């Protein structure tokens, strides 16, 4: 188990710039699907958000809710935040400070995962809300970089983002909501944020 977690952390730590490489496809839907996968900052944050959503659904404070409904509602809220950011970014264009907010989102998600299995429920809830809110800036960056039909690009982006969040949720579920294991993942996500800031 520890080997798997260390391997995953090492993958997250691999340095990559915030800039996305150019795509060779001319289909807006394909471009949208590929876009979150070609920026490690977006990939790590959305993957971490999936882990955080799974952690929250497993806590005692969430016991009164249906786990699947809570995961679905939090995931849907993140996708709505992403879509709104996409629309705003496509209209407003490049704005300074967005990349800083994207970097901050990685650390907020990592802190949320780290804190999820503690007794500080109010802090955890705040970090979950903040993480979902910060997804807006990822959408904003996608909107600035959108190519072709915004509808097709947006649909592809949301499909890809949903798949990444789901993958993170499944990984956390796979490790049986172990507080120690999730803290290892939290450390990997935070370390990848540091690597991304150094590389950018």
UniProtKB/TrEMBL annotation:
It comes from Vibrio algicola. Keywords: Membrane, Signal, Transmembrane, Transmembrane helix. Residues 1-19 form the signal peptide. InterPro entries: HupE_UreJ. The keyword Signal applies. This is Urease accessory protein UreJ. It comes from the Bacteria. The chain crosses the membrane at residues 43-62, 74-94, 100-117, 126-144, 150-168, 180-199. It holds the Pfam family HupE_UreJ. The keyword Signal applies.
């Amino acid at each position: 188990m520890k080997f798997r977690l260390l391997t995953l952390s090492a993958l997250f730590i691999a340095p990559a710039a915030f800039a996305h490489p150019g795509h060779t496809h001319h289909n807006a839907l394909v471009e949208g699907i590929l876009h979150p996968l070609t920026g490690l900052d977006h990939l790590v944050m959305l993957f971490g958000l999936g882990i955080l959503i799974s952690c929250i659904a497993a806590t005692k404070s969430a016991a009164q809710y249906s786990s699947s409904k809570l995961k679905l509602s939090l995931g849907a809220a993140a996708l709505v935040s992403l879509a709104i950011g996409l629309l705003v970014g496509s209209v407003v264009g490049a704005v300074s400070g967005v990349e800083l907010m994207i970097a901050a989102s990685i650390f907020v998600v990592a802190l949320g995962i780290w804190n999820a299995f503690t007794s500080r429920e109010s802090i955890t809830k705040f970090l979950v809300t903040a993480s979902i809110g910060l997804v807006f800036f990822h959408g904003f960056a996608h909107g600035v970089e959108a190519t072709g039909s915004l509808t097709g690009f947006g649909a592809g982006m949301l499909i890809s983002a949903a798949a990444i969040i789901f993958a993170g949720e499944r990984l956390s579920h796979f490790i049986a909501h172990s507080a120690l294991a999730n803290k290892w993942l939290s450390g990997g996500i935070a370390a990848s944020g540091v690597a991304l800031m150094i590389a950018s």
